[in-house]
Specification:
The protein starts with a strand and ends with a helix. The chain contains 8 helices and 17 strands. It is an alpha+beta fold. It has an 8-stranded mixed barrel. The chain is globular. The longest helix has 15 residues. Helix content is 21%, strand content 34%.
Length: 372
């Protein structure tokens, strides 16, 4: 059997994009199907379409909902690499940027005006994301020309506005009710902030990890030496935030962990230095859902990040990441708060993915049995 799919870049991630009706024809569990299609478990994913990194082993599943008010509904899947597992517990903000573009390219949404507004809903979190795709003169540019940090080439500009994002996973912006908490890990007490907006995030000061705020380029090597401790902090935060009943049962995808520090001197380019972990490793750029949490953390008195950025709310927040500076924004419109960031997206390939023979044979047998 074969499955139609698009290979797309969204922000600093790549994902395979499927339509629900195409996957429904396979009639097998997505928890079984996706790891095999991606080539997991295998650190190289050599016999599948996965990219062998956390930012390239992702899938987006799209459908057109029947109800009014939402143009596209989508589900995000983080496909394991060394494990034949799929994590459905969170969304990917970078990959979210492909949804509006896909809808326009497939004719689901007709572009109009210089910016086409597309209302999308992520089923993992229930989050409404207002996407604004640049369509000058009512059409996608013939040649994409928008650029962003962390990507060498241009794509189509997509603005992502997360509507009222606070507490979408846990029910509260501050899941424990406190702006800061203390976690014991590796024999040390860590002062952290746990915030839920876009995605649940636990925030740690770089100085507590022994990282020099003035030498941001050296953070990655220092972080690599402390991954076990950081994961212990993250797993304890998962229990504190109500995301897992025990430390051992904490998901790999959430909560995310962000390491932050103030620029060592007033910096006209950025407000805070950030390094985020993704699936247990330093993220090469920044998880966009995590950037939404950081934006609201900066605006919340008493948090670790607010102590760096100051008490006065800012319309934008500039985050230095390994890929460059990312700027987030916040605005109120029609009674709702939108917190967002601009990304770029591009379709790389239109593909037919062949099901591995053993899986395809099992599926065909199931289909034959269903028709008897």
């Amino acid at each position: 059997m074969k499955i139609e799919a698009e290979w797309m870049r969204g922000g600093t991630s790549k994902c395979w994009v499927f339509e629900t009706e195409h996957l429904d024809q396979v009639r097998t569990s997505l928890d079984e199907l996706l790891p095999r299609l991606f080539g997991s478990p295998d650190s190289r994913q050599i016999d599948g379409v996965g990219g062998a990194t956390s930012t390239t082993s992702k899938a987006m599943i799209l459908r057109r909902p029947a109800e009014e008010g939402v143009d596209v509904e989508f589900t995000f899947a983080q496909v394991g690499i060394e494990e034949a597992e799929v994590d459905w517990s969170s969304n990917c903000g970078n990959c979210s940027a492909v949804v509006g573009l896909y809808a326009i390219e497939k004719g689901w949404v007709v572009p109009h005006g210089d910016v086409t507004r597309i209302v999308t809903r992520n089923t993992n979190t229930g989050q409404i994301i207002i996407q604004r795709v640049s369509t000058p003169a009512g059409a996608l540019p013939i040649v994409p020309d928008a650029r962003m940090p962390g990507v060498a080439f241009a794509g189509y500009r997509v603005g992502l506005g997360f509507q009222d994002p606070a507490g979408k996973t846990t029910g509260k912006l501050l899941p424990t009710g406190a702006a800061t908490d203390t976690i014991l890990a590796g024999g040390t007490r860590w002062t952290v902030s746990m915030v839920d907006a876009g995605a649940p995030v636990v925030i740690v000061r770089a100085e507590e990890l022994g990282l020099d705020p003035s030498r941001y380029d050296s953070w990655a090597s220092g972080v690599e030496l402390q991954l076990e401790t950081l994961d212990h902090i993250r797993r304890q935060a998962a229990v504190r935030m109500g995301l897992a009943p025990t430390i051992a049962e904490a998901a790999r995808a959430i909560p995310k962990l962000a390491i932050v520090a103030s620029p060592t001197q007033p910096d006209p380019v950025c407000d805070v230095n950030v390094m985020m972990l993704s699936m247990g490793k330093p993220h090469p750029a920044l998880a966009i859902t995590g950037s939404i949490a950081l934006t609201l953390a900066a605006r919340t008195p008493g948090t670790v990040l607010n102590s760096i950025t100051g008490a006065t709310p800012r319309p934008t927040l500039r985050l230095r990441t390994p890929a460059g500076v990312i700027e987030t924004w916040s605005e109120h419109r029609d009674g709702s708060q939108l917190v967002g960031v601009d990304r770029t997206a591009r379709t790389i390939a239109t593909s037919i993915i062949h099901l591995p023979e053993a899986l395809g044979t099992a599926v065909e047998a199931s289909l034959a049995s269903a028709t008897q």
